[in-house]
Amino acid sequence: MSTPLLADLIKALTILPGVGPKSAQRIAFNLLERNRDGARRLARVLEEAMERIGQCARCRTFSETALCRTCASSSRDPGLLCIVETPLDVASIEQSASFKGLYFVLMGRLSPIDGITPETLGLPLLEQRLAEGEVRELIVATGTTMEGEATAHYLRQMARRHGVTPTRIAYGVPVGGELEYVDGTTLSLAISSRREY
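The chain above was modelled as a monomer; its predicted structure follows.
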């Protein structure tokens, strides 16, 4: 038996990715039974984050300041611009410590059926940035979904219009992976993306 407020809490928790009604119920009960102080802290931090975290004016990733740390850094190469779909993609690339350029975060991918247009993805801002002439290589790191590939194609055309070299990140067999366990699409991409060894 749940109260109206408990029902609201459970329903609110279902907005989290991967949290269905049963998981939301378990989380709500756990917070109420065992961790009310933690729940209060979560509520405070969540409220503050929603108020203070916006988007970087240059790359569109999450930031508490007008420019994120990456865009404000003088040690990054402004001639290399990596285009990703989400801030989580930036975090993944940064964890690899292999990229020293800058980013542009689309916050999605082109999908006219869902109403996601070039304007929705901030592509006029990207076009303006390419027109400035500082970017020499546009590294497209969108997913391999149909929408990701359509977005990559659009970005490639945009780069060429501005005399910028478009490149696409390679996809293929993971390090330590056995070929017998790799799906056909990944193998096909790996073979077609091969380079001299």
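The CA atoms of residues 9 and 17 lie 16 Å apart.
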